[in-house]
Amino acid sequence: MGAGTMYDVVVVGARCAGAATAMLLAGTGRDVVMVDKARLPSDTVSTHGLLRGGVVQLSRWGLLDRVFATGAPAITQVLFDIEGDSKVRRIKQRAGVDSLVAPRRYVLDELLADAAVESGAELRTGVTVTGLLRSDDGRVAGVTGHDVNGGQVELPARLVIGADGRRSRMAGLFGAEKLEQFTSPCAVFYTYVSGLAPDTYAFHIGKDRFAGVFPTNDAACVWLIRPTPLLEPIRTAGSDRSKAFAEQLDLLVPELGERVRAGRITERLRGTANLPNYRRRSHGPGWALVGDAGYHRDPITGHGITDAFRDAELLATAVDQDDLPSYEETRDVMAREVFDLTRALTAFPAPERFVELQLQLSDALEREADALASFPELTALAA
Prior knowledge:
With about 375 residues, this protein is of the alpha+beta class.
């Protein structure tokens, strides 16, 4: 499309949530452009692990085989370790899938963006959105910004979707208030380790600690979550953070610490603390929010990519039916139980209660996967 052309939809953010939304909307025949300030492919903070619901969505969209073709291993079993008592369970067939997957984000985001372009969306990277176009009645009518060379960008559109993450500039421009929020008292650190089992998710639970392993394309993401003050030995270690991380695993989860030391840490340690958890108002005249821009939870319930996929489809369906209020209403109903469980788990109750909450979480996520599997097939994307 040329300069000044009116798009049906501008999607600001071209990662999981934005690319999936653009793919689905373009698949319905709409003129869609997605913009991102980053040059893709590029990495972003993520623990990568998809549970069943996210795999269901990839399968329904015809993209699961593409994900496996990138080298992301099929996860066929899960190890649960509760204070040293370990059990391994095979992943059973349910909702049409019998394995899980944890792709690196630079792989998954590019794959989704490519799928959006194949569906007819336009992709423009290196574009920073700084403002909105508005009609005479105040309705959002597009975006303004600049490219990497400082050139001015103006994209008129009938609908602008913010998919720009938890630090969403678009939410601020839209004036999207938070409907509910709390701050997590936890911190998470993670790195990548080679030499670990490629077919197994691992979860280790103990007093004031939750650790795990998600095998990815080229290594395994190994993570540790604790109440923030208890991770000070890592937070204050400076350039020795990776060493401090390994030492904490040795102390808290000896079995996992031993496996990490037998392998090789391949990348720098990453982490974050005291994350915001919230639901935002996610639609208004001429605008909507999707992904972390509209709804975000602490990684202790590790379900963010599936949230993004779910909300992308809910939003695309609502746009197709010209019923944006139904998007937010359905999102909030589907997210309610997991949001509440996230709040409870971040309080790190005694291990027995933590395990009970994890079982409730597992049941909730399996029921959500069933619901996602029942969504109508999008035949335009089935090729």
